[in-house]
């Protein structure tokens, strides 16, 4: 009997040994060699291309300089890419290929080819955000599609001086660009423009923010201040993927060309810009 028991245990021990070895093989390795490969960097959600000239008015130039620092930082924090250029001919040909949103920081296209390229880009579903002087003109008839149809503002009519903050009231609050924006907020310092066209009479124009009555008088020069009235500051055109913001003129010491304010001082105003870019790129 003892011999039979030992014989029976031999195959059993062999079976158990194989089971242990197989079990060890199934245990995942640990340590550096077994660490998962690092996750691939997420591709940028969209691409923004900012156009500027940087040649007219120290306050506008100062805004461009800080915008071209602020936008790359904001892009990195919000997973998009930002490039700036003073070559307005990139509005022609294939220069906007792969660009989701175009910015006009301190100017607008001047040549017929540039204007035609931009209009085609917008008609084909491109996104656009313009600031302050991007809408300035005293000759709207020279490009009626842009000034009267697209922007809806027509000619420059008046401005406030000197540059100041303004309390703005939000309108059309369901618009994605206004997500998280309170009913009133204080803007950064800017010079403010008014226009020859009544934006509210245009069914395609949706005003997103205007000067709150508590801001009056708006301006520090009694001869260049607003004392009452309706002054749209932020708006969109429902026929295009576009947003216009009237800010973009810093206070300046013109004797030394030193900026005395920053357009990006208002976190709420910055939120509008970021919301707006995401909305324009996602449509």
TrEMBL record:
Signal peptide positions are: 1-25
UniProt entry tagged with the keyword Signal = yes
Q: Where is the ThuA-like domain?
A: 52-257
The protein's UniProt keywords, in alphabetical order, are: Signal
Q: Which Pfam families does the record match to this protein?
A: ThuA
**Protein name per UniProt:** ThuA-like domain-containing protein
């Amino acid at each position: 009997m003892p011999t039979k028991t030992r014989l029976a245990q031999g195959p059993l021990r062999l079976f158990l040994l194989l089971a242990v070895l197989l079990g060890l093989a199934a245990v995942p390795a640990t340590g550096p060699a077994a660490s998962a490969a690092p996750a691939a960097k997420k591709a940028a959600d969209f691409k923004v291309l900012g156009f500027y000239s940087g040649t007219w008015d120290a306050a506008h130039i100062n805004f461009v300089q800080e915008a071209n620092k602020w936008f790359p930082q904001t892009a990195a924090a919000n997973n998009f890419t930002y490039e700036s250029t003073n070559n307005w001919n990139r509005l022609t040909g294939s220069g906007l290929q792969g660009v989701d949103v175009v910015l006009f920081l301190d100017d607008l296209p001047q040549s017929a080819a540039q204007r035609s390229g931009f209009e085609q880009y917008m008609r084909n579903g491109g996104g656009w955000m313009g600031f302050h002087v991007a809408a300035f003109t005293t000759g709207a008839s020279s490009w009626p599609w842009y000034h009267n149809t697209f922007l809806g503002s027509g000619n420059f009519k008046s401005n406030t001086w000197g540059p100041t903050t303004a309390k703005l009231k939000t309108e059309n609050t369901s618009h994605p660009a206004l997500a998280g924006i309170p009913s009133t907020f204080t803007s950064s310092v800017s010079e403010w423009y008014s226009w020859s066209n009544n934006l509210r009479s245009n069914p395609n124009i949706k005003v997103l923010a205007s000067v709150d009555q508590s801001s009056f008088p708006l301006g520090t020069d009694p001869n260049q201040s607003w004392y009452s009235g309706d002054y749209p500051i932020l708006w969109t055109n429902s026929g295009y993927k576009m947003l216009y913001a009237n800010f973009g003129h810093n206070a300046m010491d013109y004797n030394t060309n030193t900026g005395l304010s920053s357009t990006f001082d208002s976190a709420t105003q910055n939120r509008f810009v970021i919301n707006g870019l995401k909305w324009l790129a996602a449509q």
